[in-house]
Amino acid sequence: MTPHLQPRTTALSRRSFLVTLGGAGIAVAFASAPALLLAPEVAQAAAGGLVPNAWVTIAPDGTISLVSPAAEMGQGVKTALPLLIAEDMDADWSKVRVVQAPSDAERYGNPGFYGIQLTGGSETVRGYYQLLRLAGAQTRKVLLAIAAAQLGVPVGELTTEPGRVVHAGSGRALSYGEIAATGSLPDPLPQATEADLKPASQWRYIGRHDVDRVDVPSKVNGTAQFGIDVDLPDMLHGVVLRPPVPGERPERIDDAAAKAVKGVTRIVTLAYGVGIIGESTDAVRRAREALVVSWSNSSRVRTYDSASLAQAYREVGRDLAQPGVPARAEGIAPAAIAGATRVIVADYLTDLVHHATLEPMNATALVTGDTVEVWAPTQGPTATQRFAAEAAGTSPDKVKVHTTLIGGGFGRRAEDDFITDAVLLAKEVEGQPVKVVWSREDDVRHGKYRPLAAQHVEVGVDGAGNIVGWRHRVVADSIFARTMPEMFKGDGGLDTVVTDGTTFNYRVPAHLVEYIRQDSGRDVGFWRAVGYGQNNFGVECMIDEVAAARGVDPVALRLELLNGQPRAQKVIEAVAAMADWKRPREDRALGLAYTDAFGGHCAEVAEVSLDRESGEIRLHEVWCVVDPGVAIQPRNIEAQVAGAILFGISHALYEQINIVAGEVQETNFDTYRLLRMSEMPRIHVEVTPTPENKPAGIGEVGLPPIGPAIANAVARLTGGVRLRHYPFLPERVKAALAG
């Protein structure tokens, strides 16, 4: 997960033309000459063909090359985004090839991320949706205009079907390849408007279940290139020894034994560690083990103890005299709560969690003079240009980024550390590429974890059990203070990504959300669903607590609080029906939770059992209904949501990073516990599209509800025992059972 920002209008230049969209301008890049206006990767695909814009090239043989601007990390965007172009240009999908976009924000930036290239925040399809459909519609209008000239008929008499333009009156037709072979771009280029987009009733590709993902075949046959697969001529290998506590630096280095390792060519002192360059991965890793380094002892992170900080953050949340930065203030919640008949109070804690990507952090860099080339599994090519430029002492326009396939991102690959490692070491051997691959231990110990957080929630109810006021305080370190400091300052110290999920759709007369920033000195970062993943825990468990206090069914209470929200009510009703909510289970119970994360609506029911003696929770079955708005690829949505559910189960039951005196205690998958295949429940996902709505973010929406659904199921199974600390470790469950 990475931040989700408000869209902006891309500035126009000679490389773009204005497309009218409901009074707002969206810039769609185009080119009249590949050599001038297309990046080399795209120009090569366009050689000898027609280039209606920077997104599409059509070869004389009918092959259509479509640019995918986002990073493919298993979520299917390398198919979904080009599919949008193909839909509105009426392309023959069997003749489409997908080209990965180069690092070029001016042409390929995401409107949902202020025009930069960044994949995350469930913003990719949402951000590019209208832009790419308009690019497809504009391509279709270009083809129609050229065909009209070639056939000598009015453009209004022409229609398109996949891969060709048809003149029904004469029975003639031209394939897109034939048009490309002899046609030239009209001047001026036709403009596309929202009115030119196909209505849902005419979609050929959007919403179909039988469009296969373009990235899967190469992953199956082994030809797919992830960052870890990059292999360049004369390539060297590098590693970095980092301090056990962030913020420390090497003071004394005994590298005699390391230099004696065969294949080691250079040892470099860095501000944050010691780098080793050599002829093989094995050589540099053996040399690192031979290094003897004395580290400084001045980092304030040495006082970081995750267990004690969790309790300290909880006390901060309880101290209502300590004000926070408001994220939402409707009515006067403190006064409403003070006048309530009953006040329900709870604290919810969430530990640090690690990304645990299957592919460890890695990057390859080549520095030549003031130019830099980077090959990396990065979620953010634009940021990577900046990171690399800073490390090499050059400017971002001198940095070229090749985005490879990504073996798991979840927000971790929007960071700079693995990019900086490769560039700094490559700078030491100018003219030779250097590939840096982190070990699993590097990855676990030096992650950018989801923040440790405490939530203090107070809900006031009247005599009839109706909610009259809701106060929600989130205590955590800030992600934006480090990654987007200007935005953080501009919002008055509010970290909106950390507080996501607290400003929900439920109808509450008075609602106050406060963020109380902590500054422990430890870097924290974006993690799949970020604020929604932690805060939905507090919201949905509290809804169940209110239902129990009022003596009503949790499903009925949610439907009541979501009056006027038909899409939300629909998914809750549907998932309750799927799970047969009211049917009694022997030694098992059901729990429900809902989220409106990332513009979607998702409700989940979990069926659990509990071993009271061991404290172990067993998850047997999960039912999920999701309304994604427009469902670009329904089958892929099912897969993404199921994957997010498994991710959520793992972090709710097992995952935690423990830090003592600044040092991470976990080292690998033997100590960082993940959900195992034998522990996977049966998962049922139903996608209920509403095509009249824009697409929602899908990569993360399945994660937030599953944890609270498990907790709510345990409460129903045990007669009201509440679990309020992620993860639900057996010892924590037994402590809750003991009261």
Automatic annotation (TrEMBL):
Q: Which InterPro entries does the UniProt record give?
A: Ald_Oxase/Xan_DH_a/b, AldOxase/xan_DH_MoCoBD1, AldOxase/xan_DH_MoCoBD2, AldOxase/xan_DH_Mopterin-bd_sf, N-heterocyclic_Hydroxylase, OxRdtase_Mopterin-bd_su_IorB, TAT_signal
Instruction: Specify the superkingdom.
Output: Bacteria
Question: Where do the Aldehyde oxidase/xanthine dehydrogenase a/b hammerhead domain residues begin and end?
Answer: 221-299
Q: Which Gene3D superfamilies match?
A: Aldehyde oxidase/xanthine dehydrogenase, a/b hammerhead, Aldehyde oxidase/xanthine dehydrogenase, molybdopterin binding domain
> What are this entry's molecular-function GO terms?
oxidoreductase activity
Q: Which PANTHER family match?
A: ALDEHYDE DEHYDROGENASE
State the name under which the record lists this protein: Isoquinoline 1-oxidoreductase beta subunit
- Organism per entry: Ancylobacter aquaticus
